[in-house]
């Protein structure tokens, strides 16, 4: 089992393997996303948080996922194009992953184990579940898909 988030890697949408040690000493907001979800407009709020707090040490990391009613069917290139056109996002977008089941990405296995959901459940219930990680790489909190990015700002500021 992974001891800390900095041991993990993920492939960004440019097919570059990113080691999470790159984000050491940063506050991370990690989100599983989808382009055709009722919560997709949260991309706007995530971008606003990123613009406002990035210079203070916030990184927003988006992980597209097609496991919930197939709301992210596009290729990695199509997802990037959608995010650029609709929301002009500047934060890192990663390749599409799975967040539940046998093929769960190691990052989400780690996040779910560190911050279980309601009643201790580790499974992700829907798109736009968010995890807040402090500068030491500790998972501080899991937020429900219904929690808007702007509602997390105060928690983020406490960690910056």
Secondary-structure topology with pairs:
Blueprint: E1 9-11, E2 17-19, E3 27-33, H1 42-53, E4 58-64, H2 76-87, H3 106-114, E5 130-133, E6 139-143, H4 153-159
Parallel strand pairs: 3-4
Antiparallel strand pairs: 1-2, 3-5, 5-6
Summarize the structure.
With 160 residues, the chain is of the alpha+beta class. 25% of the residues lie in helices and 18% in strands. The protein has one domain: Glutaredoxin.
Task: Walk me through the structure.
This protein has 160 residues and is α+β, with helices and mostly antiparallel strands. The protein has a single domain (5-159), classed as 3-Layer(aba) Sandwich (Glutaredoxin). 25% of the residues lie in helices and 18% in strands. It has helices spanning 42-53, 76-87, 106-114, 153-159, and strands at residues 9-11, 17-19, 27-33, 58-64, 130-133, 139-143. It starts with 8 loop residues before the first strand and ends with a helix. The mean pLDDT is 93.
| CA-atom Rg in angstroms | 14 Å
Task: Name the CATH class.
Answer: Alpha Beta
Principal-axes shape call: globular
User: Beta fraction of the residues?
Assistant: 15-25%
How are the strands of the largest sheet arranged?
4-3-5-6
Helicity level: 25-40%
Number of helices: 4
**CATH architectural name:** 3-Layer(aba) Sandwich
């Amino acid at each position: 089992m992974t001891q800390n988030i900095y041991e993990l890697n993920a492939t960004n949408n440019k097919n570059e393997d990113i080691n999470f040690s790159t984000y050491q000493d940063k506050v991370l907001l990690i989100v599983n996303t989808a382009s055709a979800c009722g919560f997709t407009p949260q991309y706007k709020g995530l971008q606003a948080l990123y613009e406002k707090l990035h210079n203070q040490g916030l990184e927003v990391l988006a992980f597209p996922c097609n496991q919930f009613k197939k709301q992210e069917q596009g290729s990695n290139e199509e997802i990037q194009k959608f995010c650029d056109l609709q929301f002009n996002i500047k934060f890192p977008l990663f390749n599409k992953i799975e967040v539940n089941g046998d093929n769960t990405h190691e990052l989400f296995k780690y996040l779910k184990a560190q911050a279980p959901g309601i009643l201790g459940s580790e499974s992700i219930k829907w798109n736009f579940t968010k995890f807040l990680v402090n500068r030491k790489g500790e998972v501080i909190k899991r937020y429900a898909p219904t929690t808007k990015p702007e509602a997390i700002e105060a928690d983020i500021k406490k960690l910056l």
